[in-house]
Amino acid sequence: HKITSLVFAGSPSKWQGLEFLIRSLAKLDVSQVRLTLFTRVIPPDIKCMIEEEKIGERVEQNFLPHDELISVLPHYDIFVIPRPSYKVTELSAPIKLIEAMSCGLPIVATDVGGVNKYIEHKKTGYLVKPGDAEALAQGIMEVIENPELARKIGRNARQFAEDNFECNIIGQRIKDMICSAQEESG
């Protein structure tokens, strides 16, 4: 069996959901899955959890400056965004979501407000219940076991990113907003 490479990128803050990601990894057949955490540090409680779950040989910590991260993302199979439902996660979308989409990576993410504005379940990504390690593990497994689904959501995610976040499109939207504001005030 091929080893599937999962990738997480972000700070080790509680609201990023590393705890749920580690718990979900422990529920998978870890001989077939490798996880790379692109984060400055792994907090002591997460390190303990990795040791307790006996998955240390499949978890790697790395760090790259943000502008270099996008160049390595295409080397991974699945991008994971395990955010729990907190006020900050319901109101903000991570830039890494858009970067992973633009790379055409299939994304397994929690169904929180900042993420579900961009991911449509099984179309541009795979959404799971926030804070539920079992649901996250099942979502990851479904994408691993269904390569056609993985390819489809990766392609659709890339198309979504091109259609919504390309520089010319964003520039036109800003121009339209300025013109609209001028018309309303004028």
UniProtKB/TrEMBL annotation:
InterPro entries: Glyco_trans_1. Pfam families: Glycos_transf_1 (PF00534). One of its GO terms (molecular function) is glycosyltransferase activity. Residues 6-159 form the Glycosyl transferase family domain. This is Glycosyl transferase family 1 domain-containing protein. It comes from marine sediment metagenome.
